[in-house]
Amino acid sequence: MVFELLEGETLRTRLDRGPLPLRKAVELAVQVCAGLAAAHARGITHRDLKPENLFLTRDGRVKILDFGLAKLTEPLGDVLEEARTRTRTDRGTWLGTAGYVSPEQVREGRADARSDVFALGAILYEMLAGRRAFRGATTVDTLSAILNSDPPPINSPAGPVPTGFEAVVRRCLEKDPEERFQSARDVRFALEALLGSASSETVAAEAPKRIRRRGHRVGAALIVLVAAAGGLLAGRWLSQRPAPTFKQLTFRRGWISFGRFAPDGRTVLYAAAWDGKPVEIFSTRTDTAESRPLGLPFARVLSVSSTGYVAILTYPDRENWNVLRGTLAVVPLGGGAPRELVEDVEEADWTPDGRDLCVLRWVDGEEQIELPPGTVIYRPHRGFGNMRMAPTGRHVAFVEYAPESRSSVVVLDLATRQPKVLAANIPHNFSGLAWAPAGEEVWFTAGHTPGNRDILAVDMSGRQRLVYRSAGVLSLLDISPDGRALLHRSTDRGGVMARGSADPTERDLSVFDDSFLGGLSADGRTLVINERGGTAGPQGAVYLRRIDGGDPVRLAEGKGSDLSPDGKSVLVRLDGPARLIEVPVGPGSPRPIDLADVTLEWPPVRWVPPRGDRIALFGREASRLPRLWVVGRAGGNPRPITPESAVALFAVSPDGQKVALSLAPRTVSIVPIAGGDTREIRGLPENLTVGRWSGDGRSLFLLRPHNWPCQVHRLDLATEQVELWRQIAPSDPTGIIHCAWILPSEDGRSHAYSYWRSLTDIVLAEGLR
Fold it and tell me: DSSP string of 463-507?
């Protein structure tokens, strides 16, 4: 018998020195996944995976030891009976393994590939937290914890573990095997997605080699079967259904918009902004790694017909990268010039026969569905999107967005034009919807936290089910007639950039990984920053941070909006139901502000200067459209100051006498707070919104946030002339979808803004059911 000479140490020896850094721990786990996947494919289940059986070689590889030792073939009942008399001081007994054995092994003595997934989750937990996931004073206590308790949150000594990674660990540690990742390949896919360095190929365990993935090296795991005296190699074929497979189709750095299958089911069209360049439409195939541009810049794919025509959205302003609304055009799949059809379109989808288009269109400040274009079939009561035609041609599905982030999946019967809610109160982190091939289910992607989205399905009777539990951020783009799914997989980050009056360049003042700007003090020195990441809690969290880069100070949960003129308090919105509170910056308790029968809307709430004794806000009465209101600082009965309108950004003049907002396209309205005639300034450039009044009250800063670079214009209120004041963009534009809520200080010497960066791949999923 020949044994391989191993130089290095076991993972247990390494863990005795403390936890591993996040990236190192995850890279080791990816290698273990590769080795387990190869073993599972051959019907081999390890059943005793633990740090003692993982060997770290000096060149960075992981070797999995002790497959199927004879002692693991003993009935677990005999082992448990013996374990009742053992204590933590017994070495080499079941105590050494009990912290990693799966619940089904404890209950029934059975093990399959998902049992190894459970053990892998326990090992990854220990690598990150520096302590075991399950540990009691005795073996029986430990096994009881495995059966009945969840491990505490992972608090790594090196710092907080991102939500997505903890979600992977917790899914591995689900008590029910059906709720876990169904294979080591699934775990590997989720971990690599979070690292932003996934590979679509399976690593062959019997042929280890170095593989480079986006700038870091991951060694392929080697399986070494070490036979102890009298030991036997044990294993069996897995009886579970085949796990879904995932294949990466794009490999460049940037963000991707819509993607669709062509009629052949092998060609994929998508829009992307690669390497910091403007968005354009590309084509690729599911059997190749190459993409080619189609010569359609500043456009996105909406739908591909069964007859070979592509519906695209073009935008006349060629500076806009993130095309949200534009002109609907049709172009042959084989090439040719686009033929423009309808303006002010947001989405469109072909009917199954390819003869008509169903469009989601913006008309007179409201959205509506038209089929064919020009014939209105539905006007919702609130915003909606992700519109898709059913394969049967009898229904249209879409998501209707409700206040306080509660949304619904809705289908519209085209015969009766009556909507039906299939799924209400879906998770607020929603993106992507498509019909299953038979038209009996609607699939969508949604998650309860910013760090993950699962694939869910709902049938026409409203029954929901989980299709695939993901630990990463997935968006469903399309489903082919044979059931393969096209997914958008992204690593997203929301952040805040700012530049003070004395700063030579901008600096990133994000709190964690999902920050957005709430407000900038009039003097440009203090930022109100909101954080939506996993560390912030379900309501989010509000922070104050000085623009010179001081440490952020957490004030409260919720969404902060504006710092009072005296700098002593912040207006904060809480949801469920929506309510407004005043939170002191220093000592003191938060104070609710009574809005009577007015429901608070979003965008931001503003103090009315110079004393801050009043508050301006957008709100709505029951069954009415929003409008702008003013209420005293102590609350009471708000007073409306504008007609009902779509929600818009607004600014309050420095003297507290007027508000400026855009109530109509290419128009700024100056509304006296005390009442009186409204001044309309018309004929302005398109797509400008109100940002802030200058400190002297003579001009308004107008924003064009979705252009690239982001633009701030200055409107002279005396001459009504507009000039470009500043162009703003992060130094690295790759993956930036948009800048938003750009705020200058009153003197214009400082500014801050939010940005959203998404680094994205398209992934083909097969075997989802």
Answer: -EEEEE--SSEEEEEEE-TTS-EEEEEEEEEEEEEEE-TT-SS-E
The upper half-sphere exposure of residue 240, i.e. CA atoms within 13 Å in the direction of its Cβ, equals: 18
Cβ(458)–Cβ(466) below 8 Å = no
Per the listing, tokens 């797509």 go with 687
Domain end position, chosen among 212, 243, 274: 243
259 φ, ψ (degrees, to nearest 5): -140, 145
Strand partners, 713: 702, 724
The DSSP H or E segment spanning 15 is helix 11-15
Tell me, yes or no, whether 102 and 195 share the same domain: yes
Q: Does residue 637 carry a pLDDT above 50?
A: yes
Long-range Cβ contacts of 335-340 (<8 Å, 24+ apart): 335/294, 335/295, 338/296, 338/299, 338/312, 338/314, 340/314
Q: What does the pLDDT average to over 168-175?
A: 92
Question: Which of 218, 243, 268 is where one domain is finished?
Answer: 243
User: Looking at residue 711, what DSSP letter applies?
Assistant: E
| Partner residues linked to 620 by β-bridges | 599
Whether 769 is covered by a domain: the verdict is no
Name which of 127-136, 185-194, 680-689 the model is least confident about. Answer: 185-194
Q: What gap in Å lies between CA 751 and CA 358, rounded to an integer?
A: 42
Q: Are 375 and 393 part of one and the same domain?
A: no
Query: Cβ–Cβ contacts within 10 Å for residue 504, how many?
Result: 6
Written as six digits, the tokens of 250 are 């794009």
Q: pLDDT tens, 219-248?
A: 333 333 333 333 333 333 333 457 889 999
Looking at the domain assignment, is residue 218 inside a domain?
Answer: yes
CATH code, 42: 1.10.510.10
- Express each pLDDT in 17-59 by its tens digit: 889 988 899 989 999 998 998 888 888 889 889 999 999 988 7
Domain assignment of residue 151, given as a range? 8-243
400 part of a folded domain: yes
Q: Which residues have a catalytic role annotated?
A: 48
Phi, psi angle pair for 566, to nearest 5° = -90, 0
Judge if 479 and 532 occupy the same domain. Answer: no
Residues 116 and 185 in one domain: yes
The 10s digit of each residue's pLDDT in 452-484 is 789 999 999 999 999 998 878 899 999 999 999
Q: How many CB atoms lie within 10 A of CB 40?
A: 24
Ramachandran quadrant class, 676 (left: phi over 0; alpha: psi -120 to 50; beta: rest)? left
The arithmetic mean of pLDDT across residues 410-423, rounded, is: 95
Q: What are phi and psi of 508, to 5 degrees?
A: -85, 120
CATH number at residue 410: 2.120.10.30
- DSSP-assigned states of every residue in 564-603: -TTSSEEEEEETTTTEEEEEESSSS--EEE--TTPEE-SS
Residue 2 lies in a domain: no
